[in-house]
Amino acid sequence: MMIRHTVTFRLKHPPGSAEEQRFLEAGRELSAISGVQNFECLRQVSAKNQFTFGLAMEFADQAAYDSYNRHPDHVAFVQRRWIPEVEDFLELDYVRL
Amino acid sequence: MMIRHTVTFRLKHPPGSAEEQRFLEAGRELSAISGVQNFECLRQVSAKNQFTFGLAMEFADQAAYDSYNRHPDHVAFVQRRWIPEVEDFLELDYVRL
After folding, report:
1. Which residues contact B84 (CB under 8 A, 6 or more apart)?
2. DSSP string for A35-93
3. ipTM
4. Of A63, B10, B13, B54, which has the fewest CB atoms closer than 10 Å, so is most exposed?
5. How far away is chain A from the Cα of B95, in angstroms, using its nearest Cα?
6. Average pLDDT in the B6-16 region?
7. B77 vs chain A: nearest CA distance in angstroms?
């Protein structure tokens, strides 16, 4: 069953900064990891929460999702970019009902 | 610019209950409101948060989104179903970067 993995987040960087752009560019590179489908880099625009960006991607099944999570490029992104640069985030994963 | 409106939520009803199914059926009827595109009723499956369902839909622009928010069928759903039956929720709205 297709799984849509999403994460909404807020960066430590000032809005519009070069650091923000560099983070987003690094995030987009996750789309190259095997199994990632329909990758989207998003701006969160609702005033009803404090998040400012989002990433969304789809996996054909749980095995593809697990493989992504273990992929060295994903692990490196989390360690080198996500943990030091992200202020707050929430992961939401969906399957169609 | 296309806006993807999403809401993730948890119901007061027991999982698998008839009340849960009735709520989801009522939620699906929101797809009939003018301007709603690519409507999805979703199950939230990540163990990293406490939400269990999601709704997602797209609007062609802010005017279409505003019209949906004001639509009597949406207002009635919020008053008669959402407020009494939803335990917790988070709205996230996205535009493509």
Report:
1. none
2. T-EEEEEEEE--TTSS--EEEEEEESSHHHHHHHHH-HHHHHHIIIIIHHHEEEEEEEE
3. 0.95
4. A63
5. 5
6. 98
7. 19
Task: Tell me which of B5, B7, B24, B45 to substitute to probe the interface with A (most A C-beta atoms closer than 10 Å).
Answer: B45
Q: Number of folded domains in chain A?
A: 1
Are residues B94 and A56, on separate chains, in Cβ contact within 8 Å? yes
Are A9 and A78 in contact, with CB atoms under 8 Å apart? no
Of B43, B49, B54, the CB nearest to A91: B49
- What pLDDT sits at residue B29? 98
In CATH, what number is assigned to the domain containing residue B56?
A: 3.30.70.100
Which pLDDT value is given to residue B61?
98
Residue stretches of chain A with pLDDT short of 70: none
**Contact yes or no for B3 and A48 at CB 8 A:** no
B8, B42, B91 member nearest A95 (Cβ): B42
CA dist., res. A93 & res. B50, Å (int) = 11
- Structural domain of residue B66, as residue ranges? 3-94
Q: Which residues of B touch A (CB under 8 A)?
A: 3-5, 8, 24, 40-46, 48-49, 51, 53-54, 56, 90-97
